[in-house]
């Protein structure tokens, strides 16, 4: 199987630079990173990809068995690294992908040398002595709305993203694939994302790690960032003055700068 | 269209002014009023989602006060948990990239804890320098549409359920069909074994005589009623019979079995053909017809007695059975008529017709049941093969050994196809031109 085609792998930036792998979270695809890629590309070899089931990946390679656990996504990461022959990469994971990076680093330590966790959360559900931001009722309502397919991720979403005549520079291909997730696949991804408790896995992280959180995040509150930082002794916590769950979009310059500062300090 | 017979409508500046004033009073002259009371919700947010302005319509839908919202909460704070997640993972990234989004289905929270299904469209307003400044959003109440969608979803689930049930029923029907097919196969196997038990396993080897038999089964699921046998009476003489009982199925089979064994035992006690048939008649009549359940058969019973010079004398008696046919060595074929013989088993005492002939080397005697002569040869129900055609066919074969004749006739039966719808038994007895070194034996077909 051609892994690079399966995961729609894109490689750009400095040919000789250290490898930085950017992994999207639940929702869209590698285009989430497009605003910070130029800043990274000057000094780093930038690897972008879509998880199987997302973006322009090969949907025929998707199976509910493999992608019902975060290990399946971690396997995608390891297989892309193997296909490219990269070792000791800097893995930048957004949202649920931050935990995918933790699992990949544990399973294949020679592949992952550094972790950057953007807006991470090891557990979205509130627990005793832990605030994940979502009550059990919230999760139930969320899963029910996924099952009933009422939100915009229903197939009714498709016409909305079919092109944008006012901004032709975006390109048809981009607008068609970006966020256009198969509803059944999105449901499995969401269940995996919001029902997994990965808090125990944090303790196994030994590589240098940057925890990058937003000051106002509706999905991963500040308490969660602090928890992740505390659970990983080798981590640094940086709080961006940014709103929302996607600082690479809402505050791309600050996000890129925080990344570059951290990586520069590592060298 | 003008009304020439009436005075023109009055025109004057005073009236025009009055009309304009009336329209102005009717129309909402204030943009503010238009914004606040529009039939859809309006809100504007900063790029971080903080609500900067919201109209009265949306506030009333959500049961919120303006002061509690503006500058205090973000758009995502007004969304249900699913809506909030969708906003963060899809809506905001798409809006950031495309600058606008239309008709996205979300759910908003109301002050009373309820959920308001809405359709949201947003557009980013940019500064003259191209920097995103704020987001303008319209919100449409989609409660009715949601109810409609729920109805559609329910109908689809019902349709899927019905489809699954239909598929299940189809699979069960297929299983039943396979079971029935297996049952039919087992029935056919059992019937074939039973049918075989009504015929001799193999015809015995006769000195100076060749015998061949054939049995055609019309249906593997129906026991036929034809039978034949060939067996020794003593060191020199042999007996044979061939018959056809009334009806089909298990009752016919039991009658066949009874007839066969009665004739066999009768032959040993009173081997004369008439005596054997009379014994069978008595047994069948007492057993069935006397009990109000008349059953009967047609049968030819005969004796074979070798003569000097390789000749064989045949003496036979018939109870209502089609005449035997003799193929001569000279290429002719003739019936051996046995007119007047009665069905066996119908009356307490019955007359039977006898006939006698001598088979010379090269001659062959043929016995058959009416399945052969009553086979249909054309589309009409009454276009039957018939005795004349049989004699002509046999004459074309003569001279023929017993096996040659049976082979030719079985080919003929096959050529009838669907026209042959009854069981058919054939028994041929022939005197070889040159006595074989070893007596020939033949199994039934």
TrEMBL record, chain A:
Domain of life, per lineage: Bacteria
Occurrences of domain AB hydrolase-1 (ranges): 21-258
Pfam families according to UniProt: Abhydrolase_6 (PF12697)
Keyword Flavoprotein: no
Coiled-coil residues: none
GO terms assigned for molecular function: hydrolase activity
UniProt KW Cell inner membrane keyword: no
Keywords for this protein: Hydrolase
Family of this protein: Belongs to the AB hydrolase superfamily.
Descriptive protein name: Hydrolase
Organism: Streptomyces kronopolitis
Taxon lineage: Bacteria, Bacillati, Actinomycetota, Actinomycetes, Kitasatosporales
Automatic annotation (TrEMBL), chain B:
InterPro entries cross-referenced by the UniProt entry: Bact_Sigma-Reg, PAS, PAS-like_dom_sf, PPM-type-like_dom_sf, PPM-type_phosphatase-like_dom
All copies of domain PPM-type phosphatase, residue ranges: 209-431
Coiled-coil ranges per UniProt: 145-190
SMART domains cross-referenced by the UniProt entry: PP2C_SIG (SM00331)
Molecular functions per Gene Ontology: kinase activity
Keywords, comma-separated and alphabetical: Coiled coil, Hydrolase, Kinase, Transferase
CDD domains: PAS
PANTHER family linked: STAGE II SPORULATION PROTEIN E, STAGE II SPORULATION PROTEIN E-RELATED
Protein name in UniProt: Histidine kinase
UniProt source species: Streptomyces kronopolitis
Lineage: Bacteria, Bacillati, Actinomycetota, Actinomycetes, Kitasatosporales
